[in-house]
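Entry 12.
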Amino acid sequence: MKIAIDGPAGAGKSTISKAAAKKLGFIYIDTGAMYRAVGLAAVRQGIDTTDTEGVTSILDDIEISISYDESGQQIFLNGENVSAHIRLPEISVAASNVAVIPAVRLKLVELQRELAAHNDVLMDGRDIGTYVLPDAEVKIFLTASVEERAMRRYRELVEKGIQADFDEVKADMEYRDKNDSEREFAPLKPAEDSIILDNTDLSLEQSVDKICEIAEARKAEKQ
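Predicted 3D structure (tokens):
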């Protein structure tokens, strides 16, 4: 069974999806982490992440793999565990920039579909229901107000000891929203058959419960 969860930055997709997958007994796949890894690779090599030709030129030298341990999904870039490095604010913007490049999406979508072909998966990202897994049995578009999303991301950074400015976090989020929704290839938008879930006023537990309820209902329909 495939569950696709899409939505803008800061909607809580990763945290909520991870918890929902655990509750449902599914494998969780954070596709955004893969784009962050590509963004990190470009930044490390001094390549402007808006330079399509430059980013495309290093793709053959980038190997991204995923493993799972007791703490969850771990992302490896050319054999190095970069799970912590990819969460830095500047890598968030880099990820959004490289994600508009068709060659990047094609490289990563192949890996994502391969993972979904052999497992019960809950996959989150920005084009899962519309492009990566259009045949997913459950499609949810998770969103919240930009103010709430920015505040969540700001608190997350502060809790990790990372110095952050709320206005800058919000500006980055608005930039990513525009970038993701206006890209020509696989833009961020709800799939026609997706369920819109606005969690501006929902707690983490309530959001997780809503997703699990939707998934269980769909599973019952199939039986």
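Annotation: The mean pLDDT is 93. The two ends are 12 Å apart (CA to CA).
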